[in-house]
Amino acid sequence: MSRRPVIWTAWVWTLLAAGGCVREIPLPLPSHEEELVVWSILEPDSLPTVFVNLSQPLGADSIRRYAAGATVILESRPGGTDTLVFEPGLEAYIGRMPARPDAEYRLKVKYDSYTATAVTRFPPVPQARLIAVESAMIPVEEYYGDAVKVVLEIRDPPGENYYMLQAWHIRDQSGRSAAYPMHIASSPAQDPVIRNEGFRFMSTSVSFSDLAFDGTDYRLTVYYHGWPEDGDTVRINLYAQDQYAYLWEKFKVYRREAGESVLGAVEPMLFPDNIEGGIGVFGARRDTVLTGIFHD
What we know:
3 helices; nine-stranded mixed sheet; four-stranded antiparallel sheet; Immunoglobulin-like; 17 strands; 12% helix
């Protein structure tokens, strides 16, 4: 009689016994080097808003440490110099000069012994036209649901370009117009450009790149959850944004899905940043507005 099955069985039991032994090995967290965390996304004709925090080690009790005594200066060429003022209610620094889309901006933040700098400029206005706004039935998990189908055509210039899309339906109530955000539908019917980017369920915005349609006229179909009535106006805001604003939007999606702080004041910052002497993002975006009438 062969003894191989017996030997094999003994070997298996030896492995299982070894695997069943649990030994706790304490691993120290990475050492922490405090840095300035700076975040700002400029939009044309809006007052610049800059958040300044101090980074914290992993496992810190508080997720944000505001740097309320910083000096925040924004230089625009052309334009001038704007010294931002800290607003306690917003816990951010607010400028006095609306951002100009034709200017290059240089940001300088000084706090204690720290100095952080960054540069950005606005991308060109995105070129697009609205094709259709209508009702649709789409697959949602195991059933079909009502949705608003928005079709637009983007004229994408050659090179790397980044976009953000928002939609609103507008209704007249008692002589006044009220705008209601529409939410991105989580459905396999979504355009691959949207579906492959990843987005937060029921988010009011989605960011995407032109990787799949660089330099072409691309017809994009997006499905929204919303409750417009027949004849309501639907407003589409299509933003062109720089690479860092795009990466910041993607980072916010991942942080929110993980239930963590959006401003990311805890290390490590898990996205490329453009802050010299600190960590964070200084970016810019501008939009074109498309409107259409919803038909049920």
